[in-house]
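Quarterly update, task 2.4: iron/sulfur cluster-bound model.
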Amino acid sequence: MSVASWLVSKVKNWQIKREMGYPYAESRPDKQIAYVFDINKCIACQTCSVACKTTWTSGKGQEVMFWNNVETKPYGGYPLRWDLNILKRLNGQSWDKDGTYTGKTVFEAAPQGERVLGWLPGEEDYSYPNIGEDECSEIVERGDFFSGIHKVWMFYLARICNHCTYPACLAACPRKAIYKRKEDGIVLVDQSRCRGYRECVRACPYKKTFFNLVTRISEKCIGCYPLVEKGEQPRCVTTCIGKIRLQGFLSKPDSPRKDNPIDFLVYYKRVALPLYPQFGLEPNVYYIPPVHVPREFLYQMFGPGVDNAIETYRNAKNDKELLAVFMLFGSTNKIIHSFKVEKEYALGFDNSGELLARVPVYIRPYFDKKNGTYRHNIP
Ligand code: SF4
Ligand code: SF4
Ligand code: SF4
C-alpha cells in the first residue's frame, strides 16, 4: 500500500483491527466522550434536532447547521448523499474474516497533496434537511406498479459529530484550529484561529463541520461541553423522546471497565457499533443496528460486527445485565459512570459512587390477559 509522505504516524485503530497512517501521533484522551444510540427505538420525532438547534445554532449564518440531524435511510441524507459520495470515492472496501479492514481509510486514500480523501458539499446539498423522510422506495415513474413481493424497509439514523479518536477535520486543518480535549476527547474548533478555508468541511466524511456564511468560519457540535463539565449529559441525549440515547465515557481499548455502561455495550457485549468504521476515524457514537434491515446494507454501514450485535440484542431479554443497561437509557440527565443490577433493579452511579438512577428491570408479558392485547418489547 503506498502511503502519502505526510502520514508520519502509525496509530492503532481498534475498530479496524490494525495500524493506520495519520498525520499526528496517537494521543488518546484519559476518557473519551461516547454515545450509544439504539436505532431500533428512534421514531424520528426530531426533538433532538430542535433541542440542539434552539440551544446552539439559532443565530445568523447558522440556518443550514444541524449539528444533530435525523435522516431516513436508505434514501435520506444531510447534506445530500453525504455517505454515498464518500463511499464511491473510497473504492474497494474489504474486510478479512477476522474483522481486519483491508481497504484504505480516508487518510490512506488521500490524493497527492491532500491529507484526507474528501469532498466539499455545494449550497444545494444543504437545501433539503429532511429529504426522503419515511421513504422506503426509490422514485417510481407514474404508471409503474409492482406486482411481486419485495422487502420494504427503512430506518432512522440520528447523527451528531462522532468526536472521533482520529478526527479528519483536525487532520485536514492547515491552521491547526481544531483540537481534541485531553480531559474528555471532545473535538472543538478554535474560532479565533479558524480562517474559513473549509478544509474541515471537505475532510469530515460524516459532514459534521459546517461553514457559517456570516462569520465565514467553521462551526461544529461542541458535545455540549458546558453540561458535560457539570456531569450532565448533552441536550440531544436528555431530550430524546424515544430514550434511544446514552452518553458516557469510553475507556481506552486496553483498559475497559465492565461496570461502565458504555464500555459494557461497546467492548464487552459488542452490541453497539461505530458508523462506517472503514473510514478510519474511530468514531465515538456507537449504534445498535436495526434488526429488520438487510444485512448487506448493515455490513457496509457498521462493519463486520453486525451479526453478533443483532444476535446479542435479540437475546437481551435473557441477559439481565444487558437489559439493565438498556433500562438506564434516558433515566437521568446526569452522566452514569458505573452501573450494577440489584435484585430487580438497575442502578446507575456518578463518578463518586452517588446513586443517580434506580429503574426496574422488567419485561412486559407478550400477551396481556387482562386487556386481551399483545405488547411488544424492544428488543
Ligand atoms: S429525539 Fe430521540 S427518538 Fe426523537 S428523533 Fe431524536 S433520537 Fe430519535
Ligand atoms: S465526525 Fe467529523 S467533525 Fe466530528 S470529530 Fe469526526 S471528523 Fe471531526
Ligand atoms: S452534543 Fe450538544 S452540541 Fe452536539 S449535537 Fe448534541 S445537543 Fe448539539
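Highlight for this quarter: The first strand starts at residue 9 and ends at 13.
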